[in-house]
Amino acid sequence: MTTTTRTRTAALDIRDVTLERGDGDTRIRALDGVSLTVPSGEFVAIVGPSGSGKSSLLAVAGALTTADSGTVRVKGTDLATLGNNAAARFRRNTIGFVFQSGNLIPALSAADQLRLAGRIAGNSSVDPAALLEAVGMSHRANHRPGQLSGGERQRVGIARALVNSPALLLVDEPTAALDRARSHEVVQLLADQAHRSDVAVVMVTHDHDVLEHCDRVLEMVDGTLTPYSVSSRT
Amino acid sequence: MFLAVRELRFARGRFTLMGVVIALIAVLVVLLSGLSSGLVNDGVSGLKSMRATAFAFDEGTITDNAFSRSLVDGEQLAAWRGADGVDEAEPMGVSIVNGTTGDDEQIDLTLFGIEPGGFLDPSVSSGASVSDELGGIVVSESLEGEGVELGTVVTLDRIGLELTVVGFTEGQATFGHVDVAYLPIDTWRLIASNTAQPGAPTADQIATLDYEYSSVVALEAPAATDLTAIDAAAGTMSMSRTEAFNASPGYEAETLTLMMIQVFLYAICALVVGAFFTVWTIQRTGEIAILRAVGASRAYLLRDSMAQAAILLVGFTAIGIGAGVGLGALMPDAMPFDLEAGPIAIASVLTIVLGLIGAAAAVLRISRVDPLTALGGQR
Question: Least crowded by CB within 10 Å, which of A132, B100, B207, B307?
């Protein structure tokens, strides 16, 4: 379709998704008719108590598991149509992940973490300097995770997630191990990247203090998404 | 190998520890290989150096110690000599004797009775070849400098027959761990027939000898020749030269024992390497889940882990081989120990390949790691 006006395309489009987990008596409905659309450049936060289904939402959005019903589209691709290998290929080219505490590879320096992400995507000529500069970590490029603080590790994790210029960034509890000041820095960094790089960012978090940096906040309760209410803050 | 090399550097303590175990296994492999080659050479180097491609034993001779049990007569020899497709057929006598040198040194010899100037005649490093000189013997080079020299007279125990060393073979020539002495087949027949007299053998003794036997018929024939058919006609049982090794005293028992030890060593190598990489892979499960979540394929991760195992195995096997060769040079002369490039190369390749198989069995776990576990809520 040709248009003369710039429209924000949906990087993530989740429609009426359900997902059940467990077996027998322990079987639960982790996602119950969830719908969510996130356009490129928007930073969406999802809050909710443990076990509410936040990580399950990241799993289906990130092609790590397949929804029992409903559709999940990332940049127009229906994830249900992807086999295991195609899903892995799709993840490395289209989706970036930021994990709790950065979850970096202990043997690799900050720069090598980014180089490895590039190599996994078939790009062995990644220059990590610009990305590390963008997250304020260029001065720690040759340090391994064990030599970095929690906030620094998370910054490197964000830079790693951006190596392959993903359309969608899925962020799992990025401030779980950070103090308040560092938490704000990291989430502000994510917001900057979303807006500057036109990346759709979905962050799940327990941390209500950092929500001010997000464009939109939703709450997950018992597998359903609802608009966030300040009164739910605990 | 991007991740593999960096992990090797990062966890060098753990990998070095594992590498030392691999190197020690490689040292043992080299030492066993050297011992194995040494025992083989000590057992059958006299046969290995011969041009003979096969030996015909008397029909029905049991394989164990067949050379000293078998006795073939003149008719059997003639049958082989007249057979089509056989280039050479000569009598060969084999017996082990005890003797004493002029210096009262006791000496054991395996007597190989051969036709002087025939195709079994050994190359000599010094002195003369086996000739019509009835009392002349060509002995293994390994005896040179050990109280035996050209002109040394060896007197055989009990019968008192005197044999004089006229030459030394080129290289070691032993049979059943006893040094070989080549002598004319007529002299061997004199000894085997129990008609030898004290002193040097004489032409008169040979002339009156009525004994046409030998232990075996040594053969040189193209591989295509059907020896079985000739066996049936000659009343013999032929074996290839390699098969005949088992007919030398103790050869089969020794080689099987050493082979079994080597097999266990290879199995231990595979198991130890497999166990190490199993633990290593389990320790890395979290990392692997992260890498799979960010899109690393199973093939990429398996390739990387196998490259890591290969670097470890090749590097430390090479160190172990080097150390083993060094230790081998320090082995006492009394020990049958020969380092040969071929067996060492085979042993090295087996150590590496079996280690890689062990590692492969361990790192296959990678393909079972669920990338979903990378997410916090799933851990």
Answer: B207
